[in-house]
Amino acid sequence: MRSLIFRSGFSILAGFCFFSLSSVAAEKARWFKGNTHTHSFWSDGDEFPEMIADWYKTHQYDFLAFSDHNSVQDGEKWLPINDPNRPAILKKYITRFGVIGVEQEKRNGTNYVRLKKFQEFEPLFQEKGKFLLLRGEEISASVPGTPLHIGAVNVTTLIEPHYGSNVANITEVIDQNLAAIFEQRKKTRQPVLGHVNHPNFQWAITAEELMAVKNEHFFEVFNGHPHVHNDGDATHSGTERIWDIMLTHRLTDLKLPVVYGIATDDCHHYQVWGARKNNPGEGWVMVRAKTLSAKSLIEAMEQGDFYASSGVTLRDVRRDKKTYTVEVEPTSGVDYTIQFIGTRAGFDPKSEAVLDKNGTALRVSRRYSPSIGEVFQEVKGTAATYTLKGDEIYVRAKIVSSKMKYPEAAATAQKNSMETFESAWTQPLVNAKVKLASKN
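Given the sequence above, the corresponding structure tokens read:
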């Protein structure tokens, strides 16, 4: 038998890790809505960052972090207006913000406009207690043929990506890039948050590779990009399944910290709107913090005091040593199902490789027992409480609504797809007292 030891990069916790809204601190806190992953003309987005920030601020978001690929929106960058759509985009930009300060020039017959740096446009949107703009980066590393993207939120300067030589280096490469984020945090004494992005993008990362990342504390359980395969397929595990596999083994035999799940929209497209067009507003986090500041938000997220959403709003989440309670902020005409999901001590640790038609093992997540990530309790309604029995390694909640994310795409929607119905995911409550059998 082995004792479960929960070790976090932020704190060492004993017993059940929990927060309770009955505390004085929680009573003073409130929910803040934010997105930590979006793209602009500084990389592969199709809009000026000012227009993007304006969209989020006017759509009741409280904070936004830009995450352009290997860019912190600094230095000189001139955008060529040679794309057929860009003259109209530039015209809308000038109409919204005025022609004064917009620098344009012509080179070899092509018109260019200078993109404003983060520090230039940040003051236009920053409003104490009302809206917070954060400098971020999507550290876009890779091993040959495999993208490995890590979000860095509230950075001060560019973090250069670390690369690997082959797929055997994937865990190491992710760890190195997360370590670089923490190193900047240590040097600057400024809170910085790192999260692993869309593990199923190009089927890049398996559950086994991800579970072994020592510096990991957050990953995207939901990403609004249409090509990141949140649901997986017949061969590949979906991101929720990866989360449960990860949590179970990190908290037992690997003795690594809990990983929290976030949702983002990973928006690239602001010009054409519709189902699966990768528009803003697809996924976000709701963080319960005392103030709208980078320090307060990141500290709350590190404590798991937030939830991920693709459309469902929660009124309350309460976790303590004996109960886990979720209350939904209902929408008229919408039904809700609340599931409490987790793994118990004594789970079946066996797994098997996924084979191709020739019997060769594929480089995909292995298949695990249904005792990993099982549904402990399911309730139809807008409120539910799960009473812990004491043998749970962890418990998390998932809330699924009857409202479709893309009603216009109903004919092609998949049953039980996390991309079909608006949902929310709360953070795992970890039991550090449970004793677990060794895998061997």
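Residues 1-25, 436-440 have pLDDT under 50 and may be disordered. Try to locate this feature in the token string yourself.
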